[in-house]
Amino acid sequence: MGRIFISAAHGGQEAGRVDPGAIAGGTTEAREMILLRDLIVTELRSRNLEVLAVPDDLSAAGTISWINSRVRRGDVALEIHADAANSPTVRGASVFYIANNNERRSNGELLLVGLLRRVPQLPNRGVKPDTESGLGNLAFCRQIAIASLLLQIGFISNPDDRALLQTRRRDFALGIADGLASWSRVIDPTPGTPTDPNYPQINIKINGQNYAEKGILVNGNAYIPIDLVDRLQIDLSKAPNVNRITYRKIVYVKAVELRDFNIAVSWDANTRTVTLRSNLVICPGQFDKIMSNGNTSEVELQLFLRNNNENALTRFPDLPKLYREEGSVEGVNYDIAFCQMCLETGFLRFGGDLKPEQNNFAGLGSIGGGAEAASFPSARIGVRAHIQHLKAYASLEPLVNEVVDPRFRFVTRGVAPLIEQLSGRWSADLDYGTKINAMLKRLYDSAGFLNANR
After folding, report:
1. Angle CA(218)–CA(82)–CA(145) in degrees, nearest 5?
2. pLDDT beyond 90 at 106
């Protein structure tokens, strides 16, 4: 059986300071994960499994480098996190795996079942592709050279999850150890020389046409030859984190990483074929421009909301229509505004500082630094204020409608024409723009823009 690498998230140096992770209830995510990790390591070693604990003083990037410098075939890697949410009612455990890898999804199910058998009071939030994470992809799932998963053991911001973790830490550790042992047995490779792997070949299809050269399957992930990337006119020179391997004198790249270059990637297990589509409806040069045209229909926005919160449209049935109308009037891409609303409100679950009756869908502040965020008399006016605030950041053009955004005049006009430039401005979160971009890709994937001809 291979070895098990386990990392406790946070606690290392990030941007010149110790990263505590989420903070809630008088504790930190780093502290809770280190305590849990130590128990898991002890339990696994008592079962005669070989375990390597990642040093706690490493950054996220350092953690990945530390693991990759030591891996052997058949090893697995797990990072444990505690999530946090604006609303203290959100709770439960989930596992993230690299998108399009059905084998890794099955591994994640083993891990989650192991935990929930020991702690059945913990709600099950499911096994999810990393494209559904806040950032749209997870480095720990993608950049580790062996099979890897990221486990969120609950929400530190939720009192019930936090109490469960602190009073039944050993049960958490036993459950995770059960899942890890099962996963490790599944990954254990067939006999062979570790230094001379024999990866199975896979078929490649591009825009509906079969490609003559074969790809390879590595740890359940499809890899394609680098010359195919060149043919797709993708420049990887500025993407050092895209996984590359050399196998039998040919350089291959992990296919799923091409999603970040607006290439749709899917996998057919029956025919062992990785399919790539580059004929996107969305023009790449317009993707992240706030002042641009929206692309979705009202129905597509409704479906996206309902698929992520089945009760989302109960209180605000006309919200997709309002975003399309108000965005179009001011020349703001309503898809971007709509995705920002989904991020800010948790798909209209609200919680935290925002309440549904405020009709504030983007966390807009009030004048004078009041304790509460701004309130608006109707959903349409709330959407209009959101659109106007985006236009203030992204454009020098005057408003079409009368101003209803209470902080419109305080914005330096035109300072943020791109989504990424909202980071540190609209929100103090420096990943804020990345999270909106990730949500936008989820919307376009849901609408079929990223995986089919239209």
Report:
1. 15
2. yes
Q: Token match 């330096």: residue?
A: 412
pLDDT in tens, 365-424: 876 555 578 999 999 999 999 999 999 999 999 999 999 999 999 999 999 999 999 999
Please tell me whether residues 159 and 12 are part of one structural domain: yes
| 12 close to 57: Cβ distance less than 8 angstroms | yes
Number of H helices, E strands in the chain: 13, 17
State whether the Cα torsion 110-114-120-124 is positive or negative. negative
To the nearest 10 degrees (0 to 180), the angle between helices 379-394 and 334-345 is 110
| Nearest-angstrom CA–CA distance, 350 and 443 | 19
Range of the domain at 316: 285-447
Helical residues (DSSP H) of 145-271, grouped into ranges: 159-167, 169-187, 226-231
Identify whether 192 is part of a domain: no
Q: What digits encode the pLDDT tens for the residues 321-371?
A: 999 999 999 999 999 999 999 999 999 998 777 899 999 999 998 765 555
Per the DSSP assignment, residues forming a β-bridge with 69 are none
Give the residue from 117, 112, 144, 146 showing the smallest Cα distance to 128: 112
> Do 273 and 291 fall into the same domain?
no
Does the pLDDT value for residue 430 go beyond 50? yes
One-letter amino acid at 157 equals S
DSSP assignment of 5-44 equals EEEESS-SEETTEE----EETTEEHHHHHHHHHHHHHHHH
The pairs formed by 274-278 with CB atoms below 8 angstroms and a separation of 24 or more are 274/202, 274/203, 274/204, 274/205, 274/215, 274/222, 274/224, 275/205, 275/206, 276/204, 276/205, 276/206, 276/207, 276/224, 276/232, 277/206, 277/207, 277/450, 277/451, 277/452, 277/453, 278/206, 278/207, 278/232
State whether 219 and 290 are in the same domain: no
Pair 114, 176: CB distance under 8 Å: yes
Sheet holding 244-247, edge to edge: 244-247, 250-254, 221-225, 209-218, 201-206, 273-277, 264-268
Q: What angle do CA 417, 422, 425 make, to 5 degrees?
A: 125
What's the pTM value of the predicted model, to 2 decimals?
A: 0.79
CA distance 405 to 349: 23
Task: Give the pLDDT band of residue 174 (cuts 50, 70, 90).
Answer: very high
Any idea what the CATH number is for the domain that residue 85 is in?
A: 3.40.630.40
pLDDT computed for residue 454 by the predictor:
33
